[in-house]
Amino acid sequence: MKEALVLMAKAPIPGDVKTRLIGSLSPDEAAELYINFLADTFAIMEDAQAEREDLSLVLSYTPEGQEEAFEAVERQGSLMIAQRGNDLGERLYHCFADLFESGFDSVVVIGGDSPTLPMDYLIDAFNLLENPQDFVLGPAEDEGYYLIGMRSLDRRIFEDIPWGSSNVLTATRERAIERDLNLRLLPVWYDVDSPQDLDRLIEELKSNRSAAEYTRRFMKKHHRLLSGKS
Known about the structure:
This protein is of the alpha/beta class. The chain has helices at residues 27-51, 88-101, 119-128, 168-178, 195-207, 213-221, 223-226, and strands at 3-10, 55-62, 79-82, 106-110, 134-139, 145-150, 182-185.
């Protein structure tokens, strides 16, 4: 079975990424932090690939034409596909559609906001996709989701969802019930979007010395963060 594990990412342009952290960080620092988040997430994906023989890694990026912005993230042998669509729902739909059309049997998509996401969650996501009606979500603490996976495409999963709100997870779960999908849930995890989330990540890195190597280097470079002055 051909499997695709996808990292959806925006080009790390200062002022365009991690905007809720600007203030605690400068626009340049926020973009640099995001690059390190992506690099750590890709490293987690590579660990998952080592566990699954037929797993391909994909970087789904936006905007088109900014491929060089991901040189520090994208690894040799992985695929790069440009995102298409006017909102997150359309971009997710086209990502799944493109990969299923390319011959993949299972597709799991994650974001780049959880640099300490346990690798086992990725493995579990693919293990839960046992038949075409299976649909897996990784719930995020902010009521969105950090992971979504399918074996067959259903466009309605991405339509009429209040993206960017606290109702994304609830609306998506309701849509799965409406579409008679077999919803499988992973453990809850957290995204790093706000200064409070960043403080939580800093504390996690202090207690878990082996997690998020790239982000840890960023923190050491910016000593005021490690000292709790973020």
